[in-house]
Write a structure and sequence with these properties.
Distance between the termini: 60 Å
CATH class of the largest domain: Alpha Beta
Mean pLDDT: 82
Strand content: 5-15%
CATH superfamily of the largest domain: DNA integrity scanning protein, DisA, N-terminal domain
Largest sheet: 7 strands, mixed
Number of helices: 13
Length: about 260
């Protein structure tokens, strides 16, 4: 016990202002990276890696396994190669946020202020006309793989644009529209279908909306051309039979909305 205390005292004696600044900077970077992958599949992967390393370390120390101890001591290079491969989408997302200006790029808050207005209004109009639609709002999990399956647009969201895309027999109406913050990124995108039809969903759009919400943290809005009903899928669940007011309330509660309508202005 005395040896441990002496070692701790010697270590603390070597800590100066420069070391404290380095520790705080490293802690801030790690905390920011954890915020980026919170609620995504990357967090599950990271936990799995941590469990494996902890288990291997305990076994190697308990039973004095020479080979495992050697692998642990020399695993840094392998980790440096594996991390960019395993967490490539999250690292790309982090670099994208670094390149964006404004406070929200650093806090992780998304800007869907104008998009929510356009999505709600367009969805309500299409619901009245029983015009099918599928709109996906990207959050922290990047949807680049699904964007690549469609046609890139890169335009500001508007009611006219969304209604025009989903107009029957238009070139882009078949598939999903993906929004990234206040930009329409792509249309006619292919989404994965839900693994199980647990909620008795009858349309491909509804199963696709639920499927993307099962695999990512995206929010998807569906307008049924059979019933004219609006639905929202998030976190592997779908809420159906919505009107414009409830649709807006759900989107603002998930995405933050226009500063939560100035805290109930």
């Amino acid at each position: 016990m005395e040896d441990i205390l002496q070692t701790v005292e010697e270590s603390l004696s070597r800590v100066d202002a420069r070391a404290i600044i380095e520790i705080l900077l490293i802690a801030a970077v790690i905390y920011w990276l954890l915020l980026l992958i919170r609620g995504t599949t990357a967090m599950s992967v990271l936990r799995g890696i941590a469990f494996v390393f902890i288990g291997v370390f305990v076994l190697a120390r308990t039973f004095d396994l020479g080979v495992l101890n050697f692998l642990l001591r020399n695993s840094l290079v392998a980790l440096l190669v594996a991390i960019p491969i395993v967490f490539q989408p999250e690292l790309r997302r982090a670099l994208e946020r670094l390149g964006r200006a404004g406070r929200r790029a650093w806090t992780g808050r998304l800007s869907y202020d104008t998009a929510i207005d356009a999505v709600v209004a367009a969805s309500a109009n299409m619901a009245r006309r029983r015009q099918g639609a599928l709109i996906v709002l990207e959050r922290r999990t990047g949807l680049e793989d699904y964007i690549d399956t469609g046609v890139r647009i890169d335009a500001a969201p508007s009611v006219e644009l969304l209604e025009g895309i989903f107009f029957p027999n238009s070139p882009l109406h078949d598939g999903a529209v993906i929004l990234r913050e206040d930009r329409v990124v792509a249309a006619a995108c292919t989404l994965p279908l839900a693994e199980e039809n647990r909620q008795g969903l009858r349309g491909t759009r509804h199963r696709a909306a639920l499927g993307i919400s099962e695999r990512t943290d995206a929010v998807s809005i569906v307008v049924s051309e059979e019933t004219g009903q609006m639905s929202v899928a998030s976190d592997g669940r779908i809420t159906q039979r919505l009107d414009g007011v409830r649709l807006r309330a759900i989107l603002e509660s998930i995405l933050g909305g226009p500063e939560m309508k100035q805290a109930g202005d």
